[in-house]
Design a protein that fits this description.
423 residues; alpha/beta; Rossmann fold; Dehydroquinate synthase-like, alpha domain; 2 domains; two-stranded antiparallel sheet; 51% helix
Amino acid sequence: MAYWFEEPGIKAILPLALADCVKGLNTLFKTPAFIMGFNVFPEGMVIGPTTADFIAVHAPKKRAFFVADEVSQRYAKRAKDYFSRNGFTTEIWPNAMPEVPLENVKDCANAMLSFEPDVIFAVGGGSVIDGAKAAWILYEHPEIKDLTVEVTPLSLLGLRKKAFFVAVPTTSGTGSECTAVSVLHDTKANRKVPIANPELLPDVAILYPEFTVSMPPRLTVGTGLDALAHAMDAAVTPAGNEFTVAMSVAAIKLIFKYLPRVYKFPKDREARYRMMLAASAAGVGFGQSGCALTHSLGHSVGALFHIHHGLAVGIFIPYCFQFYRLVTDKYLEICHGLRIEGKTDQESFENLIKATKELFGSLDVPLSLKELGIPKDEFERQMPTLVKYSLEDIDSIFSPRPLTQEQCERMLWYAYEGRDIDF
């Protein structure tokens, strides 16, 4: 059975929905409510309403279910203890898995059905939040048999009859706390599968930088590159508008300034906080306007060669922007934000690519897929599948410049060899 995004009707209607004449008729711009700062889980006296007070308004039964993984369960416990002290009945499900296998989602949903929460907290990185979103759908609709087929952007799910959703990220990259998307992993097909629906947007995002301080440097870089790919793509996609561009450029500025700093000084709490803001700002941007080829190409390479998602998508940024360059000048907004404008548009663009590569260098990030250790013969053997998955990926639809099969293969080889795109 085909995934929802492979259905001809969906593939035909989405590009039409991106047209300015259609977007100008009715565009919804929505974000979660944000609770952010260094005292969101207070232990002593607090002046004014607390985090628990805000959540309790929406959860009259005060039954809180916390989704976490092996790493993030210690943070979930801190949040759980805080809400327990404030009169909530709580439970932690610490079994979320990386890459979000569909079977793991079903297990989580079964635990929710047993506990019957009226508020769901996802405490962790993007995989935890994405898995909790998908499990939330099954909690509200146990009759759904296959999320990858039955849930589409046009589905009227009627979520929130049982529970509302709070995202508590412990990394700074995925932006899942600000998007209506859940990226799952079909283990049988060895493929990432996105679930998208406006109702999946979390109701609340709690940004607590202390939860990110213990991230190791390589994970900090990987998640930061994910946020950068989100923001840079969102700044130039046809589906964007003034709101999404502003959020995306703000995120890019923060990432260029604070990611190298937090890479060198992992305990720098100001830098950790700014990176959380950057990831969420990027999430708001791409959550409304979509990502593009950085993610369709990165999803495929990451899935087939088991490359960290952030590194897989981030490494494609220079190549994708060189490809977009022929059809858009929206990159000038990024150049203006970073104060790297040249005397001509071409010079500004070259400055942007140079600055991006210099950023990668400061983070010890390779500039080619070959440098990631992917064997050339295996890359060549997997090329037909890489091209197929990339072109079928829903993010390809949001590209400023349509990608043909021949161009896709050439682009992958250029990225493998580290060659600038010249077509």
